[in-house]
Amino acid sequence: MNDKTFAIKIDGVTKRFDQKVAVNNLSLTVNSGEIFGFLGPNGAGKTTLVKMMNGILTPNEGIISIEGINPFEKPAVAHRYMGTLTETTNMYEYMTGEENLYFYGSVFGMDKAVLKDRIEELLEAVDLLDDKDKKVGDYSTGMKKRLALARAIIHYPKLVILDEPTSGLDPENARKINSLIKEYVATNNATVFICTHQLRYAQDICDRYGFINKGHIICTGTLSELIEKNSFSNNIHLKAKLGCPNKLLDQYKVQEEIYQIPFTDEEEIAELIKSVVVDGGKVYEARLKRPTLEDVYFSLLNEEAS
Q1: How far apart are CA 45 and CA 65, in angstroms?
Q2: What angle is formed at CA 190 by the lines to CA 188 and CA 193, rounded to 5 degrees?
Q3: Partner of 16 at 20 to 30 A CA spacing, among 76, 136, 186, 253?
Q4: Model pLDDT, residue 4
């Protein structure tokens, strides 16, 4: 398949630092137009891989393709397709917010008239229009993060790489960042590659996931695919007082009057509740408990450790 089918194609990449293998024969594809969550513990190799994708580090082995372009052979061309937000915002603090965006837009060779309109559009989108003339050194953490995201997408990149985009933000600022990311993908047919430790956040925003541990990929897929691949089951959480002994329920008892029962068909829930009531029991609570991204992630990491 042509590399241009994928926003990112990584094939057999290894990166060593002396005797330490940071990334080990890693292969991964990210489809165009998706928000991809790249998840793993500290030291798993996430940052090393992102630095190779940006052309900052060169792999010892393997090939990386960004929108069909090798970032080591043609770094300037690859960077025109990319925008990156690191965990530290790295803005020029002695410059204003507007001056920062003008500088970075100029680096990408944007037309002055186009750049002027683009800066105003982005400052409004990240709710910084009224603060555009303030020095970035006087910005709060949330303001700096929002400005850094505006900088990352100022040149309309097809691929946006975000490292912990909502770390250190309050819920309101995190919501603004998420809204901007989703809107950018939808209106520009762009791809977003998110490195994060925040699993609930990743489940809310990402379409597909890749788990990395000790430099290699454990698993990739949508949440539904990850659940199916690894045979996770949906459960009914039942709180009930039984009217008579029930061998089926007894095997799923987790504590007094609490049961966790696997199921495949939601019709089973109604039948289960009915059977408890018919036998003289009382149902206090019955709800679905589907596996979360967090459940899958920690289960796979624990499996790796054992």
Answers
A1: 18
A2: 150
A3: 76
A4: 54
